[in-house]
Design goal:
The protein is of the alpha/beta class. It has a single domain, classed as Rossmann fold (3-Layer(aba) Sandwich). It has helices spanning 19-33, 45-48, 74-92, 104-113, 135-138, 165-171, 211-218, 221-231, 233-244, 249-268; strands at residues 4-10, 38-44, 58-61, 98-102, 117-133, 150-161, 174-178, 191-195, 200-203. A nine-stranded mixed β-sheet has the order 2-1-3-4-9-8-7-5-6, sandwiched between helices.
Length: 279
């Protein structure tokens, strides 16, 4: 079997983070467990203007800090060109290209495709929160093994809201879940996941986050102090408790991105795709 070619797009702009470690760990572990050989390369998109070409089978594009609103940075046009090439390739080719978009990447592509409004939140979202499925989300194969609601790490200053339903219909996309229910505030709930096509999937949360690694990260003195200073002792303790709960982000991490990687790979190597069992 020829190795599958996988590109991981790092949009962290040279900022240290846990997300890339988690993504690379999930990619390697998933394909190792399925005995599928891979060739893996990481591209420093924002920090070094590195953009992969169209020779890869599967792309995972990370979250990252900063604004997803338009800039004149040279990487941005090249990033969107790659996205357009993937969509164009999949319209005419029988061997598809698969793409998973996380948080910052999801916001960028949602803006580029015009499926909703990207705006600054009144206050940053930071923590582990419930994510609620829509009607389409209940029939989404990648969500079958997750309860409703399920829990995920949500860390962002921007949001995708106000879905442009006509554009979503033109693309054949589906809005799959929304952020936590907030009955005491008058704000629209953000869109938290979209299936753009059969091959392109994105989340505004962080499905790659692993409880054990993030617990180590948040228990360092510097990060603990930052969280308590910015969000309070209660928020810190709530995050620690959620990171220790096997039914929260540990479940999401074990299901969502690995299922996407596995199903994409099986289609590429013509292996039957097993549908996950519903919770």
């Amino acid at each position: 079997m020829n190795p599958l070619k996988i590109a991981v797009l790092d949009l962290n702009n040279n900022h240290p983070n846990e997300g890339m470690r988690c993504i690379l760990q999930l990619v390697r572990n998933t394909f190792e467990s399925e005995h599928i050989p891979i060739e893996l390369r990481v591209y420093n998109v924002r920090g070094a203007n590195e953009i992969p070409d169209l020779t890869y089978d599967l792309y995972v594009s990370s979250g990252g800090p900063g604004s997803p609103l338009p800039t004149d940075d040279p990487w941005e046009g090249r990033f969107f060109s790659l996205i357009d090439q993937i969509f164009a390739h999949n319209r005419v080719s029988t061997r598809k290209k698969y793409l998973f978009l996380i948080c910052h990447s999801f916001q960028l592509v949602s803006r580029h495709l015009g499926i909703g409004t990207i705006s600054l939140r009144k206050s940053p979202s930071f923590g582990i929160f419930p994510i609620h499925k829509t009607d389409d989300g209940h029939s989404e194969p990648l969500f079958k093994a997750l309860p409703d609601p399920f829990f995920a790490v949500d860390s962002r200053s921007y949001q995708l809201t106000a879905p442009h339903w006509e554009r979503i219909g033109q693309l054949g996309a589906q809005v799959l879940c929304l952020e936590k229910i907030r009955p005491n505030v008058p704000f629209e709930r953000a869109i938290m996941a979209v299936r753009f096509t059969g091959e392109v999937f994105g989340t505004q949360f962080h499905p790659e986050a692993d409880g054990e690694g993030m617990l180590r990260y948040f228990m360092t003195e510097e990060k603990k102090r930052q969280v308590i200073e910015n969000y309070g002792e209660g928020k810190f303790q709530d995050m620690v408790d959620s990171l220790l709960d096997p039914d929260k982000i540990a479940l999401t991490e074990s299901v969502l991105l690995p299922s996407f990687l596995r199903q994409s790979a099986f289609r590429l190597i013509n292996k039957p795709v097993e549908r996950p069992q519903e919770v």
